Each structure stands twice: as structure tokens, then as C-alpha cells.
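Dear support,

I submitted the protein below through the web form. The confirmation email said the job was done, but the results page showed an empty box. After a refresh the structure appeared. I'm attaching both so you can tell me whether what I see now is the final result or a partial one.
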Amino acid sequence: MNDNHIENQDPDGSESRFNTIIKPDSAAQPPLPVEFESWMDSQPVQVTPAQTTQEPQVVATNTLNVPTEYQPVNVVPVKIEPPVPVKVANDTNHAFRHTKNTKKTGFWLVMVCLLLIFIFFFTPVRTTTLVLGIDWRPSDSPWLGRSDTMILTTIPPVSPQVSMLSIPRDLWLTIPNHYDNRINTAHYFAELETPGSGMQAAKKAVEANFSINVDYAIRVKFTGFVDIVDAFGGVTVNLPEALSGLEAGPNHLNGKQALAFVRDRKASDDFFRQARGQLFITSAIKEVLNPLKWPRIPAVLAVAAANIETDLPIWLWPRTAYALIFSAVKGFDSHTLDRTMVTPWVTDEGAQVLAPNWEVMNPLIDSLFK
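What the results page shows now:
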């Protein structure tokens, strides 16, 4: 047995491997370098008297080139500050305030949206539009024709109700850049000279003679009018009395019947024609409110795109549609230039026309469009 081991025996005299004591082996510890031992032996020691109750400090001078790893290290004590307590907010109150602020923000967003909608649909700006029915022939250029139907419409400020004024096609007026003629020729002459300019020329003719501002215009081909009514499945017109070969009461008209109804002059004159045109427009808009007709709207729009032209901007379409639907339910403010406002007259060329009585017409025009 090795000298470094001390063996104990169990009571029965046998060796016990659990009672073996191992003495430390001095050879297992590495010796100090010779340079360090020589330095320690030759190094003078200075003892500084303690100024306090602390132990004397030993100051050693390094006269030898002692490796850095054997030099004493000056340890600077670090003062550890206690952690600053953090005040934790009440989660319940924070969540309540957050919910309250969110509700306030949502409320004001809703109010702003409602205000914008109100301003859009009830804007305090008058919108006046001239509706033209063009007597177009397939052999003509795209829009060459007289405007045999002329209805001046306006949506007044704030109120969504539509006012309508039908203008007789034989009204004798001064056509800008031309001579005196029927008002329905303004569109024709402009299209004849410059294709595509008829709508603007008709607007200028109304503005120059009626002294009002016409913002936009819509023109519809009579041939397209037939296709639009057929695509919509016909329109039911409720007549207060027998008119144009139709009985009093509801009459369901297809495209050709509808065109004959609004243009008939056999049993009546142009003044009755104006009234029938307004009656048909009112009936057609009421048909739009019928849910059974809604599946036909895409087909109607497809046909209308090829037969209707307008300079009314898209952003005004919703307001115009709302005003038309509102007026179809509540009633249009419909007017015509009746016989008291014009004087029948025959031109030197023998044309039978209507001369305007401005002193009678102007009060009505001013009340509707100014």
C-alpha cells in the first residue's frame, strides 16, 4: 500500500475501502518559480504605521521584472446602490382611460364622416343641368341632330328636391355665333361645324338668353331611349286622363310606345308634349325604386353608355341620383313655359315659332335658377 494512504480495518479485521484516508501529496502541487522566490527573499518590506485601527499596509516595490500575472492587483471597491423602486401604474385605470379615449376618437370620427356626407348631399351650391333629347338618325354623324327635347333641371342649395323647366323646341331666340333661330338648332349647327360641340353650344344658348348659369348637360339619343326603356323591361305611366291614345290609369309602355308617347303631337301641341315628357321621367325614376327592376340595372347601364353623354362629373352622380330618387318619392317641382309666356309668330320664311314674353318668363326663371 502507498505511504500516502492510511488504511482502516472493519471490526472483523478486513480492509474497508470506504475508510481509506488519502493524505495530500506535496508533489501534486506545482512549485513556485525560482525568480519569484528570489524576488520575495530580497524584497525589503516597509511597514507604515496605521493611522487608524486598520491593519498596517505593506508597500512593495518591484525592483525585478516580475511577470504581470504575479504582480498584486489593486481592487477598487464598487459601491452598489440599492435598486430604485418603480411605481407600477394601475392596469385597470390605464385600460379604462385607453377605452375612454378610444370611444372619444371613434365618436369624433363618426361626427366628421356624417358632416362630410351632409355637406356632400346637401351642399349649399346650386347645380343646374340641361337635359337634351337628340333627334339623331343612324346615317348622321355620332351626335348630329336637333335637340327636340330640352329640360332645364336644378338642384337648389341644401334641399335635394329637383326643379324642372321644359323649354319649347320652337322658342325663337338668338343663337350665339349665329343668327336668330329656334333654340333646338343650337345643338345641330354646332355639331355640323364641329362634331362633339353641340352640348356646349346648347348650354351657351340657354345661358345667353335666360341669363342663368348652366353647369352641366346630358344628351340622350332618341334611338337609344327606346333601347334603354326596353332594357329596363318597360315603364309604367299612370295617366290622370286619356292622352296620346292611352287610357287613363296605369299604362305599361315598351321602348317604342314610350317614345311615341313623349313625342306625340297629333292630338296636342308642344305644351302638352312638355308635360308628357316630365311625366314619363318621373315614372321612369319611380321604376328604379322597384327592387324587381334592380337585376336589370347592369343591362340598362350598358345600353345607356352607348346612347348617353354628359359632362356631369362622377363625384356628383351620387348627389344627383339621391336628389332624383327623393323627388320621385316627394314629387318633382315641375314647370313649363306655358302659353302666357310666349307669343305664336310666323317668320318671314314661313316658319311657325314662339316668341318669348320675357316680362312674364323672367320671374319664373329667376325663382327657379337664381
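Response: this is the final, complete result; the empty box was a page-load delay. The domain at 127-369 is CATH 3.40.630.190 (Aminopeptidase).
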